[in-house]
Amino acid sequence: MKILVKFLIAAAAFLAAACSSPYTDAPIRSLEVWPDQDGVHINAHGGGILYYDDTFYWFGEHKGERSNNALVGVTCYSSKDLVNWTNEGVALSVVDDPASDITRGCTLERPKVIYNPKTKKFVMWFHLELRGQGYNAARAGVAISDNVTGPYTFLRSGRVNPGIYPENMTQAEIDEMNALDPADYPRSWTPEWVDAVKKGLLFKHDFETGQMSRDMTLYVDDDGKAYHIYSAEDNLTLNIAELTDDYTAHSGRYARVIPAGHNEAPAIFKKDGTYWMITSGCTGWDPNAARMFSATNIFGPWTQHPNPCTGEDADLTYHGQSTFILPVPGKKDAFLFMADNWRPRTPIDGRYIWLPILFREDGTPYLEFLPEWNIKDQWK
Ligand code: DGJ
Q: 361, CA 20 to 30 Å: which among 105, 199, 257, 345?
């Protein structure tokens, strides 16, 4: 009798857990049109997802029919199951004041939002380029809100950590860098130039004004510390910079990682104490082969692994470029790889590639292109 009762309790608990899971077998079909609740293709490119209050909030770049410039701002969509999405409108709007950093027509890319439980604020960071200046400004922008869907208030934009050396450079390395003379490297991409970039030639150029910040992501670690990871030094080197406790500024602690590696599109997750970062090379809107790195300390050293993509079009990241990796709540060791399939001539039609991160027996992550899969069956 006792055994039967125990069995019934366990079965009831199992059923309750199964029924309370928000995930269904609704298919995720990469590269197809993804309609929102109104049947309109989701317009949230270069985005990331915040899980808050049992709901997923997807923030991304609003793209125009013909323009990659920010004519609207950062959009937000919500979902309970990662498949059915409701358009929550514009979270951060560009403005009409031509004097504003985020004036309509600026370039506002790769927005990511994190929640700060201490201040109860939602904090958005993004890559900002000033209107009419191409990609020269290379700034990080930050905005905050009391409500997850916004409206977000723009705080400021700028280069990062001016006048501060990274934690992972020794005094001898700093001295060697400071001895570099740009006049000795008149041509880019020679082996000597690449070596000098590795040692900090471009870093030194931006030392006083702050480091460039283009493609970016955010990561909140288990201890609540948040990091801003961005392409600095004209996309040659990544910086991993700790944010202040309220997440709205840089604390001054940071590392220069994979110097002269020429990485964009950083996306990061942590499993069993190891950080894994997937990036892309730098070929504009055209896809290239993804790169993967691991580290046991977020400031490095980072070790490079082979391209995580396998199968057909692995060398083109299946025609996509990484943007974010979402740990899927309620599922064990479940990480969702998100990438953009850019369509620069009709940017609004850009598609999404979402794939489960798979793991080899030795624990190394890899990707396979699954044209159709679902969250309920993919992960236990
Ligand atoms: C590649 C970047 O990853 C994108 O976010 C965007 O900046 C394009 N380059 C622009 O060419």
A: 257
